[in-house]
Amino acid sequence: MTGAPLLSVRNAARHYQSGETVVRALDGASLEAHAGELIGIMGPSGSGKSTLLLICGLLEPPSAGEIYIRDRLVSYPGADLDKLRGFRRDHIGFVFQKANLIPFLTATENVSIALEIADVEARAARGYATQLLGALDLGHRIDNRPSRLSGGEQQRVAVARALANDPPLILADEPTAALDSVRGRQVMELFRRIAVERSACVMVVTHDPRSLDLFDRVIELSDGRILSEPSQPVQAHP
Ligand SMILES: Nc1ncnc2c1ncn2[C@@H]1O[C@H](COP(=O)(O)OP(=O)(O)OP(=O)(O)O)[C@@H](O)[C@H]1O
């Protein structure tokens, strides 16, 4: 992959003090991720996948190392990440295992609120939210509140919300864990489309080997370390 990376993680570590012992959740990880890539992050439970995502998402600073987005140093030990709220909103979309939707808002409103917070006019925000939900096969659910949606549908609304501001980087932590295989595949295929059509970089933590064919490459973690070489292609993708 050529060109400047969108995201660059340099020798990042994250250590947690647990009583007398230090847990090395991340232990000197380096990677580069580019626009247009769909990257899988895999590894056994406790290998540091979620920690890597938190650090890349500027939700926690590393204990050592640096994070660059578009060549700008954005996170390092002791960085004040509260100051990066606006930057995060404009650059990074998150999807977690749980949808965490606002219960008293409809599906459309749950998505459009992300746009309105970013100063998009309400009508335009709703129009785009509806369009995104339609692309996720939720066109018939746009006026439903979360309590009227299945777990899988709620999660797809969460995916639409993460995409609302067209962030160049999308980070997803087991986004399909609560979905059946057909819906899970749909979400992964949507991520693939987002990467290609919007030139976004999408990094997805998953345990599901059925998505492997969709990834440009897989970053494999073990004991807080990256096993596979950065930029090593797993499978060529058209
Ligand atoms: N806030 C924390 N305090 C102490 N230890 C932590 C903390 N967060 C993570 N850890 C530890 O760091 C290690 C890596 O955790 P992490 O959640 O990143 O792994 P993971 O690969 O995402 O696991 P899983 O697949 O089970 O979600 C684990 O041993 C975990 O217990």
Automatic annotation (TrEMBL):
What sections of the protein cross the membrane? none
Q: Which UniProt keywords apply?
A: ATP-binding, Cell inner membrane, Cell membrane, Membrane, Nucleotide-binding, Transport
- Report the SUPFAM superfamilies cross-referenced here: P-loop containing nucleoside triphosphate hydrolases (SSF52540)
Question: Can you give the residue ranges of the ABC transporter domain?
Answer: 7-238
User: Per its UniProt record, what Pfam families does this chain match?
Assistant: ABC_tran
List the signal peptide residues. none
The cross-references to InterPro entries, in alphabetical order and at most eight, read: AAA+_ATPase (IPR003593), ABC_transporter-like_ATP-bd (IPR003439), ABC_transporter-like_CS (IPR017871), ABC_transpr_LolD-like (IPR015854), MacB-like_ATP-bd (IPR017911), P-loop_NTPase (IPR027417)
Q: Does the keyword Membrane apply?
A: yes
Molecular-function GO terms, alphabetical: ATP binding; ATP hydrolysis activity; transmembrane transporter activity
What Gene Ontology cellular component terms go with this record? membrane protein complex; plasma membrane
The UniProt similarity line reads: Belongs to the ABC transporter superfamily. Macrolide exporter (TC 3.A.1.122) family.
Name assigned to this protein: Putative ABC transport system ATP-binding protein
